[in-house]
Design goal:
Blueprint lengths: L2 E6 L8 H15 L3 E5 L6 H8 L4 E3 L5 H10 L4 E5 L5 H9 L4 E4 L11 E4 L16 E4 L8 H5 L15 E5 L9 H10 L4 E6 L3 H8 L7 E6 L5 H7 L2 E5 L3 H7 L4 E5 L5 H9 L4 E5 H6 L2 H12 L1 H14 L4 H10 L3
Parallel strand pairs: 1-2, 1-4, 2-3, 4-5, 5-6, 6-7, 8-9, 8-11, 9-10, 11-12, 12-13
Helix pairs in contact: 1-14, 3-4, 6-7, 6-12, 9-13
Amino acid sequence: MKRVGVRCDVGPGRGIGHVMRCLALAEELLERGLEVVFVCDAHTVPWAEAQLTARGIVIEPAVWTAAEHVDLFERSRLDAVVFDSYDLDAAVYSAVRATGVPTLAIVDGDLRGAEADVLVDQNLAAELDRPPLPANAVRLAGLGYVLIRDEIRALRPVDPPVRRPSAVPKVFAFFGGTDAFGAGPYVVQALAATGVPFEATVVAPAADLAARIAATELRPQQRVDVIGPTDRLAAEVRAADLTISASGTSTWELLCLGATAGLVCVVDNQVMGYERAIATGTAAGVGVLSDLQADPSAAAAVLKRLLTDPAERTRLATAGWQLVDGNGRQRVADALLALT
């Protein structure tokens, strides 16, 4: 096997979660001497496009029909294909698989019609689910298969994390590469409503979000700095006493880093991961975004406890750190390469 294609979703409304976990797998394949081609509209999110081009990855514009995929993959002389999409028609998967090229699909619970030789569900407790599988397909499920990028792996703590008392805790908040659902301003309102001191750095990818965050009325000893998308995400997480994020693919990166994670469920397809993370005690549930928009008081109560209780922060951080070892991408790459 020499050349692997990756067909994934990306966009201002879809976010960059699919690109980021595929990038983790791509880094592993590049380390093993393979070429990787991404097929996606990365130009719609310049920061995501920059992550791919910085690694020398070729980008082809997204195509949509089954025939277009078969044609593009044949012309690109691909030896295997990775899919990570909520938007593709099921016919695309079956048409590509029928050509005989080895295929792997990354899914989240519902297969959404995905058909592949290997199906990867990297979500917490996914190994307990038993979805019907396509003929002759293998399913890799659970946190043992989480795809973690180099940036995160490099900063994973060697020892279990400890959160020490801090008069002014440091908070880092981000909600994907685009914050497509505008969670940032509502989370900052909930932080302010705690009434306790903090210093927060909040990622706001768009100017209107930054302006709304900056307009939030803060209490004494509360500070919020707004930044754009950053290449130093892992370092920011490691430096923070509390990290607040959407309950998406970044959740597993936070656990790997030993972060004290406060999760916000911003869209329906995050509900399963959000509920499981809270139930297993690996993250704190800040709330569902629609609830924060209506009334931030419940979220403020959760955040106040996290800001004032270092023992709780340590408990959460340690629980998550123990579950995600950062080596899932090696196991997935092994399964993909074994297809040839």
